[in-house]
């Protein structure tokens, strides 16, 4: 069956129905069943879904599909019938086929191979007269011009024969029929002296239904010889004198292939040309006896001799021979004249292939688009062509589909890789793993960093299982991979119009190669960005034959260049490229010379944009001239400064870029870093904090640009991992340098990156510097961070030595510069086109700038069409830009919203801009991703975006606008750039403002939600978040936000519901569990507040009690989840338990049953089995929970204390500050712990009621609670008494705490926890008063410590810490004593390290820096230790910035007061580790607090000793001289 849709549906037989069922993907078992039931076309029309399920056992799915597709088929057939009378405009159901030349039957099962669509029958050109049939193709169902008669004797007349029935006859009958038609037509042509062609396989509309006149159907040809041999009838049909002449006039049959035939036998149009040259036929009239097969006689018989002639489009017998003979000379003369005319016609002008090639590649521009991607599809390159690939080296090649298995060994990949880095892939690499976003996938395969080389048919040198395969195997195993690969690139990675596909036909083409065209044509929805380059016409014909199945001949020919060699293509294209040769970048070197930067090596360092000495110098004069004005306007309109800006300004081609005063400050800091000093750290940090839009990034890039001759400079690309950045930075420093000790420093620019990320990079670089053993005092890296901030001056004051602020305020010098520059620019551009510069020159003073922006926006938007889709786009962009930092909308998204269909890339930007209103053109600025070259838009300035929202707010509230944006399906479902768009949309509803991120304030919700709930109403904010929850697939974190928002507005039932929903979706997330706890905590607080004026009874407090206990339960779950999570350190659950516990105790205390006169009742109830009668029944469900309260609170307090003992509390990581899942952060955890420990002690001891007399009669448990009450409850609160001495006399407090312990502790057998607190209290007291009467002897404490468990694994970390202090050896100790002490210390340190690692989990140590409690001093006993608070008092008189700088740089250790206070110990370094000498030469490893301070060589060193919960650490390591 040739094509299921050709005949009407009613005429289909069973086989036709079966093939159609296969084409729509029905299983073979069902097809066979229907075939057995003799379902033909008529029956198919009557089938119902019920019949299919009942009679064939078919499932509902395929049954429904058959009925749906059948109905579509009937509708399409009716459409075809209605248009039958309109020639060349009819529609028919056509099958898009792909001639795979392999297992067709198998492929028919694949839906993509036979997709039913409605197409228009298109006109087709005739094969040029006298051309070989193999050099031409027809497309089935295309339509030729109507049959024609005599024109000018040379232009052939045409006659069509369907030959559909005759082609199926046996050999004898077929040959007779073919010879009869050819000889009759030939005789008619020869007698009237005209050229002609007769076509077999083309409909002549005589009795044929369903086809149009001239429609190509083709005939099956199994034996071509059969047609050649048919012409042997010439000798039998003509006289012997004429037959030889006739042979000369009748050409051989030409077999023109018909594309899109599903038949196993290939179909052709068989054509015979007739060329009666006057020299052959002069004075002759030909008569013919036509052969005819006589069925009765069962043989061929010759008809009576007859002379024929062409009359119009028909061949008819000559009616009057005499009259015909009389005009023979006239016809000969006409023919002779026609031949002379054609023979002397000027030869056809040669096509200008060079111009055509340039036009196709550049899209009609003078120069190739430097930022356009190219995709190359190629097969085997000839060896001679590999020497001429410079034009490819200068292109932005995104990927290469290479069908040459040897390409990596001896082909194009091998040659290309000599100049550029390539990523070698196979097609299966382009399947996105589950859960990986498009952006992550791009980063994973480095798609935009290096050219991807996709080996489509195996790779001969690959040791894995990727052998090349034959066509049939490839179709079965790899065609689907090709489809997926092309689809991913075209639909998800590169938007339409940003790339061009080039087919390079350098060898004969095969089926896999041809399939690539079809996949690109399908996914790119057309041919406009596909071009073909072929040297061999024969290769092109094969490719063209296949391509005609998808597009017409004119389109193919107009987008193909055939006949140019690769060397000619190379020479031609280099004329339109930005550089005619491979530009070689240069870098400075240590000895003041230069070196070349290898392009290939640079490309492998994908995390850095390296700034070379000769950056931009390869730019051709044409490019420079054509783009200079656009570049300058783009910058002053609000675009980011580019290297081209700075280069053109240097060359005086455009005006200078103003250097703000901050430039000189930063530049001075950079120069200062270069001054050598032995104490110089290998890595210096400089921070630029700037108001948004004040020119901070311009200053940073100017610093790099002007230092590129003295330093190696690079910009760190966003989203690259820390390890990759540091590795690339080290490579850049050492590139082409002989000695790692003698290299130029590297200046790295980080733009708007988190402080945490910067710290991680610094840490990695420090490790690298130490590993390479770089000499002390050698500067290796300068990290220049440029971050936006709403209070840059404050940031600068905190650390003036390394921070620079840039504000909107201009200095007097800057005012003059800006004023002069503005005057020059306004002569060149209209003010609205340089708005950002105008805003800067207005000084950004709050009142002035606000007024200016308001006037500008009002003037601009006063006549805007509020209902237009363009205005909607402007609103959307303004909303995102106002609330989401660095947000934008991709141009592809904009085009989808505006419903633009841009057919040709060279008009893409023009078409987009044309579609915008005048107002939109002025407020939107076009951005281009430096890595992917993908276009996007944003509002020219954040202030303008904010003002647009306010101006248009009268027409639409922001909540409604946000809702519109959220529910806009076109934007939300647009495939390209979806990850980035979704991130911005999510940030709009989720991301809070943080001062640490440069925002003005910390917010509890995203700024948009804060605005809506405060300026509009809470209900709208809640509805907006509900819509977002639904839109983002019911995301748990949106449910969490809804819980927060509801409890903030006292809607606790709703808050409870949403918190429960969030927990169900993320049951192990400690932050969500914390939110659930906070719901109940706030609800409990609200219930307590409601009861403030009422008398509280056991009955009316039940509800509040139940809520509080639910809160504690949730916080318990939260802390358990946090402990189990190795990636975070969330202590919120512990804080929650204590806070709710205290609030609950406070409520219980106010009940009459526990009133002040019966205070001991509450303690008795909580700590014993006793239950007062009044509460026994009302609280029957709560008793055991309330009696467990003290234990839960104690556990939480102990955990928090331990955590604070380990880690510094002045560090709040960016993660903690900015995470949108964190409820709150306890800002001063040490003060919190002191206060809550006091409250805990008060509630459980009744301390406020006790007198000094009865305090001594307390039980051990009560005494323990009293110790808590006074601040001795844990080691952290004890040591806090040394730093917090404002409100009380810490000496008397500590003495009182000690007095609460047994007077003879050795006999008392205290618990380990009590023992720790007792010893710690003595250490704290010794720091304040060594003469105190309560202070025990140091040796007594040593003896007492023996009561700690012998197994160190069972020891508390605080006990191990105290053991290190108690048994740290002293100078006067004997060797035996030292040895014993070292053993104790080493054992304690070993287990401290184990506990520390457990506590730290998988969190980088930098995020949780260890806290040092004591330093080693010069005394003995207690006096050999100095608490950190005493060291800090030395720097107390310094300003905050000076103090920070001294601690940061290490200068604090050089202060004479410190050297007097601390003991400097001696040791040595070995393999970058610090050691102390113990007894008998024992090595004691002391970790360095800063690994970068350890000298690389084996040296004798001195250092200070600090004591932490990790063990001893070394400070201020100095090489002994």
Offer a few descriptive terms.
single chain, 1521 residues, alpha/beta, 7-stranded parallel sheet, 7-stranded antiparallel sheet, 67 helices, 38 strands, elongated
Task: Describe it.
Residues 1-5, 83-119, 345-349, 901-910 and 1211-1218 have low confidence and may be disordered. The longest helix is centred in the last third of the chain and has 26 residues, at 1375-1400. The chain is built from 67 helices and 38 strands. 47% of the residues lie in helices and 13% in strands. The protein is of the alpha/beta class and 1521 residues long. Strands 16-17-15-14-18-19-20 form a seven-stranded parallel β-sheet, sandwiched between helices. Strands 32, 33, 34, 35, 36, 37 and 38 form a seven-stranded antiparallel β-sheet that branches.
Task: Provide the fold topology.
Blueprint: H1 14-23, H2 28-36, H3 41-46, H4 49-56, H5 60-82, E1 91-96, H6 104-108, E2 115-120, E3 137-139, E4 157-161, H7 171-192, E5 196-200, E6 219-220, H8 225-230, H9 233-237, H10 240-249, E7 254-259, E8 267-274, H11 278-281, E9 287-288, E10 291-294, E11 299-302, E12 306-311, E13 314-317, H12 321-326, H13 328-343, H14 353-362, E14 373-378, H15 390-393, E15 397-402, H16 407-410, H17 412-416, E16 422-426, H18 438-445, E17 451-455, H19 471-477, H20 479-493, E18 499-505, H21 511-523, E19 530-534, H22 537-547, H23 553-558, E20 560-562, H24 566-573, E21 585-588, E22 594-597, H25 599-604, E23 608-611, H26 621-636, H27 643-650, H28 661-673, E24 683-690, H29 696-707, E25 712-716, H30 722-734, E26 746-751, H31 755-771, E27 781-788, H32 792-798, E28 803-806, H33 812-828, H34 835-841, H35 846-861, H36 869-883, E29 889-890, H37 891-897, H38 908-915, H39 918-923, E30 924-928, E31 935-939, H40 942-952, H41 958-966, H42 969-973, H43 978-990, H44 1007-1016, H45 1018-1031, H46 1036-1048, H47 1052-1065, H48 1070-1090, H49 1102-1124, ...
Helix pairs in contact: 1-2, 4-5, 20-21, 28-29, 30-31, 33-34, 35-40, 36-40, 41-45, 44-45, 45-46, 46-47, 46-48, 47-48, 48-49, 48-50, 49-50, 50-54, 50-56, 54-56, 56-57, 59-61, 63-64
């Amino acid at each position: 069956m040739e094509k299921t849709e050709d005949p009407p549906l009613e005429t289909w037989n069973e086989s036709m129905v079966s093939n159609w069922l296969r084409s729509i993907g029905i299983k073979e078992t069902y097809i066979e069943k229907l075939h057995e039931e003799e379902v033909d076309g008529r029956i198919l029309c009557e089938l119902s879904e019920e019949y299919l399920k009942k009679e064939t056992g078919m499932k509902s799915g395929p049954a429904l599909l058959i009925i749906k597709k059948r109905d579509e088929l009937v509708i399409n057939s009716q459409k075809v019938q209605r248009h039958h009378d309109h020639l060349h405009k009819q529609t028919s159901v056509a099958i898009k086929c792909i001639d795979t030349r392999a297992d067709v039957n198998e492929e028919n099962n694949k839906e993509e191979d036979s997709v039913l669509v409605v197409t228009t029958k298109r006109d087709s050109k005739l094969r040029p007269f006298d051309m070989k049939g193999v050099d031409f193709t027809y497309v089935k169902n295309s339509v030729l011009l109507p049959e024609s008669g005599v024109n000018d004797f040379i232009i052939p007349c045409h006659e069509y024969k369907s030959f559909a029935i005759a082609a199926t006859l046996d050999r004898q009958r077929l040959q007779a029929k073919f010879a009869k038609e050819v000889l009759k037509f030939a005789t008619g042509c020869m007698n009237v002296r005209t050229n002609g062609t007769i076509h077999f396989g083309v409909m002549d509309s005589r009795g044929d239904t369903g086809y149009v006149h001239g429609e190509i159907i083709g005939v099956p040809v199994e034996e071509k010889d059969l047609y050649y041999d048919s012409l042997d009838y010439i000798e039998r049909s003509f006289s012997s004198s004429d037959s030889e002449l006739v042979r000369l006039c009748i050409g051989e049959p030409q077999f023109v292939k018909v594309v899109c035939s599903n038949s196993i036998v290939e179909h052709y149009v068989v054509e015979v040309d007739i060329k009666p040259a006057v020299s052959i036929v002069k004075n002759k009239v030909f008569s013919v006896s036509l052969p005819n097969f006589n069925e009765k006689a069962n043989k061929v018989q010759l008809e009576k001799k007859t002379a024929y002639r062409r009359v119009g489009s028909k061949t008819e017998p000559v009616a009057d021979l005499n009259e015909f003979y009389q005009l023979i000379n006239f016809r000969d003369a006409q023919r002779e004249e026609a031949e002379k005319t054609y023979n002397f016609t000027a030869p056809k002008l040669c096509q200008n292939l060079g111009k055509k090639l340039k036009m196709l590649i550049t899209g009609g521009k003078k120069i190739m688009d430097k930022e356009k991607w190219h995709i190359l599809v190629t097969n085997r390159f000839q060896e001679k062509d590999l020497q001429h690939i410079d034009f490819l080296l200068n292109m932005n090649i995104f990927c290469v589909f290479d069908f040459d298995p040897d390409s990596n060994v001896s082909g194009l990949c091998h040659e290309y890789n000599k100049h550029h880095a390539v990523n070698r892939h196979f097609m299966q690499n382009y399947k996105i793993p589950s859960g990986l976003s498009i952006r992550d996938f791009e980063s994973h395969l480095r798609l935009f960093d290096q050219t991807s080389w996709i080996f489509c048919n195996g790779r001969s040198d690959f040791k894995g299982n990727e052998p090349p395969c034959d066509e049939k195997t490839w179709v079965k195993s790899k065609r689907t991979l090709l489809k997926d690969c092309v689809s991913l690139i075209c639909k998800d990675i590169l938007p339409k119009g940003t790339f061009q596909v080039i087919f390079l036909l350098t060898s004969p083409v095969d089926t896999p190669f041809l399939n690539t065209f079809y996949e690109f044509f399908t996914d790119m929805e057309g041919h406009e960005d596909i071009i073909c380059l072929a040297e061999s016409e024969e290769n092109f014909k094969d490719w063209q034959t296949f391509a005609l199945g998808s597009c017409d001949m004119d389109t193919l020919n107009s987008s193909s260049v055939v006949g140019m060699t690769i060397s000619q293509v190379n020479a031609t294209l280099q004329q339109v490229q930005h550089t005619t040769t491979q530009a070689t970048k240069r870098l400075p070197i240590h000895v003041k010379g230069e070196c070349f930067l290898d392009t290939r090596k640079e490309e492998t360092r994908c995390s850095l944009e390296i700034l070379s000495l000769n950056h931009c110098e390869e730019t051709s004069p044409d490019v420079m001239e054509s783009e200079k004005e656009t570049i300058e306007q783009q910058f002053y309109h609000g675009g980011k400064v580019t290297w081209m800006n700075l280069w053109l300004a240097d060359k005086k081609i455009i005006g200078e870029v103003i250097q703000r005063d901050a430039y000189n400050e930063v530049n001075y800091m950079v120069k200062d870093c270069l001054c050598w000093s032995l104490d110089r750290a290998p890595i210096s940090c400089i921070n630029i904090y700037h108001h948004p839009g004040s020119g901070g990034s311009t200053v940073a890039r100017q610093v790099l640009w002007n230092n590129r001759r003295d330093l190696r400079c690079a910009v760190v690309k966003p989203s690259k991992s820390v390890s990759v950045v540091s590795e690339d930075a080290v490579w850049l420093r050492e590139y082409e340098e002989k000695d790692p000790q003698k290299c130029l420093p590297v200046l790295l620019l980080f733009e708007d990156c988190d402080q945490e990320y910067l710290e991680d990079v610094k840490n990695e670089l420090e490790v690298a510097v130490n590993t390479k053993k770089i000499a002390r005092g050698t500067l290796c890296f300068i990290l220049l961070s440029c971050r936006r901030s709403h209070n840059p001056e404050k940031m600068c004051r905190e650390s003036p030595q390394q921070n620079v602020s840039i504000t909107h305020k201009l200095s007097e010098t800057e005012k003059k510069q800006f004023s002069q520059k503005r005057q020059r620019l306004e002569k060149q551009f209209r003010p609205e086109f340089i708005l950002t510069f105008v805003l800067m020159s207005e000084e950004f003073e709050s009142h002035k700038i606000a007024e200016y922006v308001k006037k500008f926006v009002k003037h601009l938007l006063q006549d805007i069409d509020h209902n237009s889709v363009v205005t909607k786009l402007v609103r959307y962009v303004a909303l995102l830009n106002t609330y989401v930092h660095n947000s934008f909308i991709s141009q592809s998204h904009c085009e989808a919203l505006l419903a633009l269909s841009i057919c040709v890339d060279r008009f893409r930007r023009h078409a987009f801009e044309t579609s915008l209103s005048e107002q939109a053109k002025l407020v939107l600025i076009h951005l281009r991703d430096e890595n992917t070259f993908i276009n996007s838009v944003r509002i020219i300035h954040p202030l303008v975006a904010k003002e647009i929202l306010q101006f248009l707010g009268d027409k639409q509230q922001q909540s409604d606008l946000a809702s519109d944006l959220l529910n806009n399906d076109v934007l939300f479902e647009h495939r390209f750039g979806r990850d980035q768009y979704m991130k911005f949309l999510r940030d709009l509803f989720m991301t809070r403002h943080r001062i640490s991120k440069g925002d003005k304030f910390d917010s509890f919700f995203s700024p948009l939600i804060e605005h809506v709930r405060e300026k509009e109403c809470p209900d709208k904010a809640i509805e907006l978040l509900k819509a977002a929850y639904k839109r983002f697939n019911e995301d748990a974190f949106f449910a969490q936000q809804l819980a927060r928002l509801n409890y903030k507005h006292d809607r606790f039932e709703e808050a409870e519901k949403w918190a429960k929903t969030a927990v169900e979706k993320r049951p192990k997330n400690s932050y969500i569990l914390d939110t659930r706890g906070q719901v109940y905590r706030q609800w409990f607080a609200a219930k307590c507040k409601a009861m403030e004026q009422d008398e509280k009874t056991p009955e009316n407090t039940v509800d509040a009690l139940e809520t509080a206990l639910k809160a504690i339960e949730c916080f318990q779950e939260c802390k358990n989840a946090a402990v189990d999570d190795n990636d975070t350190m969330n202590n919120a659950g512990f804080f929650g338990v204590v806070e709710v516990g205290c609030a609950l105790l406070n409520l219980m205390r106010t009940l009459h049953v526990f009133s002040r006169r019966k205070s001991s009742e509450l303690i008795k109830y909580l700590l014993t089995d006793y239950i007062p009668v009044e509460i026994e029944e009302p609280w029957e469900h709560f008793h055991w929970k309330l009696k467990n309260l003290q234990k839960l609170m104690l556990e939480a307090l102990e955990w928090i204390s331990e955590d604070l003992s380990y880690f510094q509390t002045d560090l709040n990581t960016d993660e903690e500050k900015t995470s949108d899942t964190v409820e709150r952060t306890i800002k001063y955890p040490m003060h919190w712990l002191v206060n809550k420990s006091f409250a805990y002690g008060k509630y459980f001891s009744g301390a406020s009621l006790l007198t000094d007399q009865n305090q001594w009669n307390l039980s051990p448990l009560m005494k323990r609670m009293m110790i808590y009450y006074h601040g001795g409850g844990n080691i952290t609160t004890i040591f806090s008494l040394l730093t917090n001495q404002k409100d009380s006399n810490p000496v008397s407090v500590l003495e009182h705490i000690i007095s609460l312990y047994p007077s003879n502790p050795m006999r008392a057998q205290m618990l380990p926890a009590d023992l720790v607190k007792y010893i710690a209290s003595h250490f704290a007291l010794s720091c304040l008063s060594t003469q105190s009467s309560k202070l025990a002897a140091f040796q007594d404490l040593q003896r007492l410590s023996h009561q700690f468990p012998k197994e160190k694994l069972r020891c508390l970390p605080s006990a191990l810490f105290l053991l290190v202090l108690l048994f740290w050896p002293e100078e006067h100790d004997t060797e035996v004593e030292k040895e014993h002490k070292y053993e104790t210390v080493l054992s304690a340190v070993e287990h401290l390290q184990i506990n520390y690692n457990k506590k730290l989990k998988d969190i980088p140590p930098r995020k949780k820096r260890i806290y040092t409690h004591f330093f080693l001093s010069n005394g003995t006993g207690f006096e050999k230790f100095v608490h950190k608070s005493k060291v800090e008092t030395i720097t107390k008189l310094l300003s905050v910035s000076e103090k920070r700088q001294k601690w940061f740089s290490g200068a604090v250790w050089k202060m004479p007061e410190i050297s007097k206070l601390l003991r400097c110990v001696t040791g040595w370094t070995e393999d970058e580790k610090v050691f102390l000498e113990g007894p008998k030469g024992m090595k004691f490893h002391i970790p360095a607090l800063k690994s970068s301070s350890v000298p690389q060589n084996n040296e004798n060193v001195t250092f200070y000793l600090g004591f932490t919960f990790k063990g001893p650490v070394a400070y201020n390591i100095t090489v002994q001289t």
